[in-house]
Amino acid sequence: APLPGSTLTTTAPPVQAAVSDVNSGVNEASISLLINGSSVSITFDEATGAIAATGGAWQEGDNQLELRVADVIGNPQAPLLWSLTIDTVPPAGTMTINSDADLTTSVYVTLTVSASDETSGVPRMLLSNEEAAGYVEEPLVPLRELWRLNAVRGPQRVYVKCVDRAGNTSAPISDVIELVLL
């Protein structure tokens, strides 16, 4: 652990593994864990075969892990290699209502949304007409048609938060349009 292919929001996740050799046992001195090519210190519980490590040379984005171990008589296990992604930075985005129009006569508007996240991508967005009232989660689409404003004459604000694959959520972005009811 963490599982291969995981996307995490922590900057230094703990690493855990279990090793065993039913014939001669595990040579504790042979155990090594590399994170992005740098060795980290480990603890080994001989009774359970549990290996634990914290710290290491973690980086934002892709991280490579390599675990090496041998048995007591010197037979090495093939290195266990896996990778995972660390993403601690929220995505960024923009949003406009009706192509940045100043006013509308319809309670139904089109939202133009764009978002980016250099590490894990942005699959979801949260939408709201009133920030304190909560948000509706939807897949991120460049054009969200038929978003319903509150049917109240005057300025109407729409809020959007972008959510990346790691679960990081952007600060709310918003746009305002004047609703003129006929």
Radius of gyration equals 25 Å
Count of alpha/pi helices? 0
Estimate the helix proportion, in percent: under 10%
- Quaternary state of this entry equals single chain
- Largest sheet descriptor: 5 strands, mixed
Strand content: over 45%
Q: What low-confidence regions span 5 or more consecutive residues with pLDDT below 50?
A: none
Number of strands: 16
Distance N to C terminus: 61 Å
Structural class of the secondary structure composition? mainly beta
Shape: rod-shaped
Strands of the biggest beta sheet: in what spatial order? 1-8-7-3-4
Mean pLDDT: 95
Strand/helix succession:
EEEEEEEEEEEEEEEE
Question: What can you tell me about this protein's structure?
Answer:
The protein is mainly β and 182 residues long. Helix content is 0%, strand content 47%. It contains no helices and 16 strands. It has strands at residues 7-8, 15-18, 32-35, 38-40, 42-45, 50-53, 61-68, 80-86, 92-97, 103-104, 108-116, 124-128, 136-139, 143-148, 154-163, 173-179. The protein has a 5-stranded mixed sheet with strand order 1-8-7-3-4, with no helix packed on it. Strand 3 (32-35) and strand 4 (38-40) form a beta hairpin. The chain is rod-shaped. The termini are far apart.
List its salient traits:
single chain; 182 residues; mainly beta; 16 strands; 47% strand
Record the SSE blueprint.
Layout lengths: L6 E2 L6 E4 L13 E4 L2 E3 L1 E4 L4 E4 L7 E8 L11 E7 L5 E6 L5 E2 L3 E9 L7 E5 L7 E4 L3 E6 L5 E10 L9 E7 L3
Parallel strand pairs: 1-8, 10-16
Antiparallel strand pairs: 2-6, 3-4, 3-7, 5-6, 7-8, 9-11, 11-14, 12-13, 12-15, 15-16
